[in-house]
Design a protein that fits this description.
The protein is of the alpha+beta class and 142 residues long. The protein has a domain of 98 residues: Hotdog Thioesterase (Thiol Ester Dehydrase, Chain A, Roll). It has a five-stranded antiparallel beta sheet with strand order 1-3-4-5-2. The longest helix has 16 residues.
């Protein structure tokens, strides 16, 4: 499946549709099973607090994966993402309550590159704090 977005139709500054992704303790346990990352900071509140964290935190790679969904949903093809990188700046805290945590993601086209590619800069927030820094993806468009 190729990109559904045309390079010629995209301008620098184009904002992608924002999205919010809820995160519960159950989500973290499922992700741990899929990824093999069973570090207790991601599921054991007593352990997480014992090492100085405010509570259980989401896996960094999980946070990164949720954020890129804004781009893949926009472009219509996950294979169109040819580069993606972030810096982890703050953890996504996931309380053991009905709400859990929330990752809020916005993104915009920051540059038009050669070969029908664009750079998309993402902002991922949780509890009012930026959780990913230097979050950028290069996407190949039609």
């Amino acid at each position: 499946m190729a990109s559904q977005i045309q390079y010629a139709d995209v301008e620098v500054g184009t904002e992608l549709p924002a999205a919010s992704f809820p995160v519960t303790r159950a989500t973290l346990v499922q992700y741990a099973g899929a990824s093999g990352d069973f570090n207790p900071i991601h599921w054991n509140e007593k352990f997480a607090k014992g090492v100085g964290l405010p509570d259980v935190i989401a896996h960094g790679m999980f946070t990164m994966a949720e954020a890129i969904r804004v781009v893949t949903d926009w472009v219509g093809d996950p294979g169109a993402v040819v580069e993606y990188g972030v810096r982890f700046t703050r953890p996504v805290v996931v309380p053991n309550d009905d709400r859990g945590g929330l990752i809020e993601v916005t993104a915009k086209v920051a540059a038009k590159l050669d070969d029908n590619r664009v750079r998309v800069d993402l902002t991922a927030m949780s509890a009012g704090q930026k959780v990913l820094g230097m979050s950028r993806a290069v996407v190949e468009l039609a």
